[in-house]
Design a protein that fits this description.
This is Bulb-type lectin domain-containing protein. It comes from Acacia crassicarpa (northern wattle). Pfam families: B_lectin, S_locus_glycop. It is built from two helices and 28 strands. By secondary structure, the chain is mainly β. The chain starts with a helix and ends in a 37-residue tail after the last strand. Helix content is about 5%, strand content about 40%. The protein folds into three domains: about 25-160, Bulb-type lectin domain (Agglutinin, subunit A, Orthogonal Prism), CATH 2.90.10; about 160-295, Agglutinin, subunit A, CATH 2.90.10; about 300-370, no CATH class. β11 and β12 (about 150-155) form a beta hairpin. It binds 2-acetamido-2-deoxy-beta-D-glucopyranose (NAG) (7 copies).
């Protein structure tokens, strides 16, 4: 009797011990391979430890679990990318692994079907998982690599941006395939689901930066001046980044090179239609805002409508003004500070003293260049 009860105790103690060990071990991985998965609680850390990938729960949203990449520079993670944006998990059974086809897949314990179901996948066509692994680069890019003699990137998270633009990320349109890398806001600050705000480069005519809200233009960042978007005067060339717009028959894209890699920065598009540019202040352990667009009423798309300009520094006066030679179409409405009817050419008034000519309008964004053609042999001054 005594002996068997001791055995019982041992049998009971062992499973309890194993359970404790399983739950307290948080692995820090450097790669995901076909034999090394990432469980909820584990993290995949980039070589320089700047970024980490793992499971997280957005604030005020206690039930849902997402796989994301975050800046691993303070105790409070700053999420920069989310895999299963539209399909959260509701328990801790999620596992990120490489399946037999060589894709990165997020599976969970599907209690309805009583099996593991996939909820997200990198979804590229690779036929086998041999020599395949996933790695988190120090730029915050999750890459799926096939290493057969030479390394080939099969898939990368930078090709599927979320709401955050990071240095080294390239965004824009592949003119040959139509593949477009653009940003989509979260639904709300605590729901990473696809929101109604997007930020993209419009490749038509001469390239422009746009924020769209519910599909309609909300902000025109302007055309590329050679060094910055014309609608972001603060984006002057500096010691942190070097920006290059590539515009040729193959693509329109903006590539950011980081000159000082010790500076952590990000640009976040939110569900109100604004982008916020911030830089990490390590001493104060907070993100410092260095830019915000659109800033004021004038910055909004078509705020003053046709043939007008908008001056936010116009004192108490109405910020909208008709261009030289133009007048409000509906003066009564205009006098109530309502520009919705816009301006039209004044009748029988010659603006230019003797016949045709040009009038300089200073301190304005270059007008919409979607119908413009640019002679690239000329340099563009701003
Ligand atoms: C980065 O991630 C590792 C692993 O999760 C963690 O131990 C470390 O504290 C993180 N770094 C910072 C600065 O929080
Ligand atoms: C999945 O969930 C069911 C029901 O909770 C449980 O019985 C089963 O052990 C789980 N399977 C795995 C692999 O965790
Ligand atoms: C589900 O996935 C887990 C973790 O990868 C694994 O341990 C388990 O055996 C899988 N269950 C089934 C039914 O495939
Ligand atoms: C996977 O990719 C194929 C072809 O590119 C597409 O038709 C399919 O909808 C994708 N599946 C998922 C789950 O995204
Ligand atoms: C979470 O809720 C608190 C209190 O309601 C609020 O102050 C905070 O802004 C919320 N955070 C997010 C990210 O929504
Ligand atoms: C401005 O005028 C338009 C009619 O042209 C009207 O529909 C709109 O409500 C007016 N806006 C305001 C703020 O009064
Ligand atoms: C504009 O000038 C032309 C010729 O000078 C004249 O025929 C026409 O009536 C004028 N229109 C208005 C609206 O004054």
């Amino acid at each position: 009797m005594k002996l068997s009860s001791a055995k019982d105790r041992i049998l009971i103690i062992i499973p309890v011990f194993l359970l404790l060990v399983l739950h307290s071990s948080c692995h820090s991985l450097s790669r995901i391979t076909p034999s090394q998965s990432l469980k909820d609680g584990d993290v995949l850390v980039s070589e320089g430890r700047t970024f980490a990938l793992g499971f997280f729960t957005p604030s005020n949203n206690s039930r849902k679990r997402y796989v994301g990449i975050w800046y691993n520079i303070s105790s409070k993670p700053t999420v920069v990318w989310v895999a299963n944006r539209q399909n959260p998990l509701y328990d801790n059974s999620g596992v990120l692994s490489i399946n037999t086809q060589g894709n990165i897949v997020l599976v969970y314990n599907d209690t309805h079907l009583n099996r593991n179901s996939s909820i997200w996948s990198s979804n590229v066509s690779i036929s086998s998982s041999s020599h395949t692994f996933a790695k988190l680069q120090d730029t915050g890019n999750l890459v799926l690599i096939r290493n057969q003699g030479r390394r080939k990137v099969m898939w990368q998270s930078f090709d599927y941006p979320g709401d955050t633009r990071l240095p080294c990320m390239k965004f824009g349109v592949d003119r040959k395939t139509g593949f477009n890398r653009f940003f989509t806001s979260w639904k709300t600050p605590d729901d990473p689901g696809l929101g109604h705000v997007t930020l993209m480069i419009d490749p038509i005519g001469y390239p422009q930066l746009f924020i769209y809200k519910n599909g309609a233009p909300f902000w025109r960042g302007g055309s590329w001046t050679g060094q910055r978007w014309s609608g972001i005067p603060a984006m002057t060339p500096n010691f942190i980044y070097h920006l290059t717009l590539v515009d040729n028959a193959n693509e329109v894209s903006l590539v950011t090179e980081v000159l000082d890699s010790s500076i952590f920065s990000r640009i976040v598009l939110d569900n109100t239609g604004h982008e916020t540019r911030t830089i990490w202040q390590d001493k104060e352990k907070r993100w410092l805002q260095v830019g915000y667009s659109p800033t004021e009423d004038c910055d909004h798309y078509r705020w003053c409508r046709s043939n007008s300009k908008c001056d936010p520094y116009n004192g108490d006066k109405f910020e909208c003004m008709c261009l030289p030679g133009f007048e409000p179409i509906n003066l009564q409405e205009w006098n109530t500070r309502n520009a919705s009817s816009g301006c039209a050419r004044k009748k029988n008034v010659s603006t230019c003293q003797s016949g045709e000519g040009f009038v300089k309008v200073a301190r304005v964004k270059l007008p919409d260049t979607s119908k413009a053609r640019v002679d690239k042999s000329e340099s563009m001054s701003y």
